Each structure stands twice: as structure tokens, then as C-alpha cells.
Amino acid sequence: MGCFAWVIFGLLAGFLAKVLMPGKDKGGLVMTLILGVCGAMLGGFLATLMGFGGIHGFNLPSLLIAVAGSVLLLLIYRVVTK
Prior knowledge:
- The protein is an all-alpha fold.
- The protein has one domain (3-81).
- Helices cover 76% and strands 0% of the residues.
- The chain is built from three helices and no strands.
- The chain has helices spanning 3-20, 28-49, 60-81.
- α1 crosses α2 and α2 packs across α3.
- The protein is globular and about 35 Å long.
- It starts with a helix and ends with a helix.
């Protein structure tokens, strides 16, 4: 995927992670979307390391991996900022 597609996919994953984990976060929606982009990359990296495959295009398994990475990163962010 190109860089622009990664950003769009990460923004979508960040939005879905925020829907799954509502609450007040420092930085608000913008920080959540940034965490979504980073989380999508983290999810793809971890999924590849564990043998599940990575993010390969706009499909449901890739979206689930990206959202899982975003939720994980959002969780870590909440623990660190408390």
C-alpha cells in the first residue's frame, strides 16, 4: 500500500478503536487518530511476527489487525498518561 493509503487506513482504524474504547483521552480525537495510524502499523508488524500475516490492502482481516493494533496502542497510551 502507498503511504497515503496507510494513513487513511490508520485513521479509520483509530476511529474504530475510539468507538470500541470510549472515554476521555488527553489530546482528544486528533491524538486518537494519530495513535490509530501508529497502531495500524504496530498491528501489521505484530501480526507478521506472529505469523498471522500483515496488512495487505483494504480488506476485513487487514482492518481487524489494524484496529487491534490501534486498541492496543490506545490502551498503552491511557496507562502511560494516567
